[in-house]
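Input (structure):
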């Protein structure tokens, strides 16, 4: 068994059961990609069993903090079973849900989403890459399903020195699927969509948006960064008269339009704009257009805290423009999915955007990721998605 020894004083986060071991914390030792290593303090005490990753800044990720634990097939089967079991205790009103959420489920670098009877997985660390076949078998066994598609084609793999990889891992079948979420249906393509095909983490915020539409009676809705139109369909379900949806991805917009039709809404209730959001918001201001509900759900502007400054300016800018377009009494649903922007900082950014726009509002609700994308006590980085509902005065 190979061992890595930490520098003096670098054991603290592992003692708190945080699973990451950074390159800079290691005094000596190494192993092959994904190989299990024993992690020791500078004084030689056992701290964790971890998967080594020779090319990543996160040089190892812990599997277990129990010295007597064997890192073997049974351990992975138990971790998979436990994560899936936990989902049955969460309130999930959809047949699409996240079964494994990486570090939060004790499987660093593994993401698994279920869409009906199809599983879609991303193997994003050397550790889960090495155990891929074992994990795939455990996933099929625990769910009783036969189809597992791999979408390990994200840039995160590069940080681990891994090549992209995508396609059926187990079974085969169509990659175009229809998801049932709350009261609506949404089509997606697991082979070509973003991430595993869909943004399941916004499920409950979409429901909140539908409920606001129902209660407040939206006339004109603007859904920015709409992707496949989840918030647009939610608004229409809530009775919104008309929704304008903006995205810079043409395939996403086509799917959004199809999703509006799939749910039986007349085409004249929805407009779709293939454009940059920032430019569109400026254009609408020039035209004197206003909306009584706006969604801002941009992509990750700050992957890490190092990007926070630039990202903060970008968030502030779109929020300022959105406030200017919001009718008095209108509602803004604004989000950040950047790990590098804390909930507190996001709140400050939105507040200063309001001040710059000359608009005041009630922060009526704080929103987060759906419960199947959990945060845990040991891994605060699990909190990436935060949102605010602001009602303009
Ligand atoms: N709200 C969506 C998820 C949004 S993901 C949902 O509920 O499913 C972010 C989206 O922003 C992606 O679809 C991406 O294509 C789009 N995007 C990224 N940069 C953009 C830009 N500058 N202007 C418009 N859309 C952009």
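Output (sequence):
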């Amino acid at each position: 068994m190979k061992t890595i020894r930490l520098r003096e004083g670098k054991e603290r986060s592992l003692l708190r059961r945080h699973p990451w071991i950074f390159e800079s914390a290691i005094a000596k030792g190494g192993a092959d990609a994904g190989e299990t290593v024993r992690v020791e303090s500078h004084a030689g005490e056992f701290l964790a069993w971890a998967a080594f990753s020779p090319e990543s800044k996160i040089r190892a990720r812990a599997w277990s903090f129990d010295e007597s634990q064997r890192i073997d097939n049974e351990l992975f089967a138990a971790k998979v079973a436990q994560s899936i079991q936990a989902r049955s205790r969460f309130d999930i009103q959809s047949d699409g849900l996240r079964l494994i959420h990486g570090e939060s489920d004790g499987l660093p670098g593994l993401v698994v989403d279920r869409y009906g009877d199809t599983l879609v997985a991303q193997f994003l660390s050397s550790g889960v890459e090495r155990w891929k076949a074992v994990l795939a078998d455990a996933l099929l066994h625990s769910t009783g399903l036969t189809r597992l598609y791999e979408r390990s084609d994200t840039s995160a793999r590069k940080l681990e020195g891994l090549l992209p990889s995508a396609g059926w891992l187990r079974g085969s079948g169509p990659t175009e699927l229809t998801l049932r979420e709350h009261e609506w249906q949404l089509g997606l393509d697991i082979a070509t969509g973003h991430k595993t095909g869909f943004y399941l983490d916004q499920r409950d915020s979409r429901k909140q948006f539908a409920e606001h539409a129902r209660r407040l009676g939206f006339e004109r809705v603007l859904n920015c960064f709409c992707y496949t139109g989840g918030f647009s369909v939610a608004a229409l379900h809530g009775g919104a008269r008309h929704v304008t949806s903006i995205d810079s991805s043409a395939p996403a917009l086509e799917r959004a339009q199809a999703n509006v039709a799939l749910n039986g809404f007349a085409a004249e209730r929805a407009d779709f704009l293939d454009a940059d959001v920032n430019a569109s918001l400026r254009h609408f201001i020039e035209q004197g257009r206003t909306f009584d509900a706006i969604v801002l759900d941009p992509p990750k502007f700050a992957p890490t805290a190092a990007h926070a400054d630039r990202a903060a300016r970008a968030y502030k800018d779109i929020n300022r423009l959105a406030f200017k377009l919001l009718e008095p009494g209108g509602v803004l649903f604004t989000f950040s999915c950047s790990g590098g922007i804390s909930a507190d900082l996001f709140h400050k950014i939105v507040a200063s955007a309001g001040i710059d726009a000359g608009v005041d509002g009630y922060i009526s609700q704080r929103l987060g990721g759906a419960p199947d994308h959990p945060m845990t006590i040991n891994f605060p980085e699990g909190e990436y998605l935060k949102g605010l509902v602001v009602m303009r005065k």
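Notes: The chain has three domains: 2-64, 73-175, 199-392. The pocket of S-adenosyl-L-homocysteine is lined by residues 199, 202, 225-228, 230-231, 246-249, 252, 276-277, 297, 299 (CB under 6 Å).
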